[in-house]
Amino acid sequence: MLPPKAAYETIVREALFMRETAESAQSGIDFTLRERRQYHERHLDLAKKSDQLADYYKWATGYSGIANFFNRFFKPVGELEDFHRREAEILRRRAGRPPNSSVRISRQDRSRRHTGLRKVNAFIDLAHRFIRDWISAEPDHEAIAILTNIAFPGYDLIADDVRKALRPTTRRGRKQTSRALTAKKS
User: How far is the C-alpha of 186 from the C-alpha of 184, rounded, in Å?
Assistant: First the structure.
């Protein structure tokens, strides 16, 4: 029903993705982060093993019997060492930086009025990032409240609820936001 290639399609698709991600955050565990960490660690472990193989082939160059064996049946040990060094480098590049969480998972999951606040807070955080990055630099708390009420009916959030949910919860986060508003000491 929506025109093809319209912004509506992107917003709906992103809202569905945000809801799915927020629902998975309900348990208090970021399963996506866990999976990405395992992928990262697996590639670093394989890179370490490739380096160990390269070290073995470097050691084998000192022993003519071992070096001749590899040269006769496979490749010269110098080529094998270089191959495994390049392999380790590629695996480290593929692993990249250690992954960060894609969603904020709050410690609190209920209030006096509602249970299941963890998923709502995760959705609010994801919607805020989406609107900030894709649409505008200014946070639109009213739009986030509307999206959240559509995704999770029964919570009846208003813009002030969204503003409260987006406030920094750690001392470090509160310092960073307040530091931007205060004048520097001379």
Answer: 6
Contact 176, 168 (CB under 8 A): yes
Phi first, then psi, for residue 171 (nearest 5°) are -60, -40
The amino acid that residue 173 corresponds to is: G
Domain ranges of the chain: 7-30+103-177, 31-95
DSSP alpha helices (H): ranges in 61-170? 64-73, 77-95, 117-130, 141-151, 159-166
Measuring CA to CA, which residue among 125, 133, 83 is closest to residue 104? Answer: 125
Residue that has been written with the tokens 């960490």 in this structure? 37
Q: pLDDT tens digits for 23-69?
A: 777 766 777 778 889 999 999 999 999 999 999 988 888 888 878 87
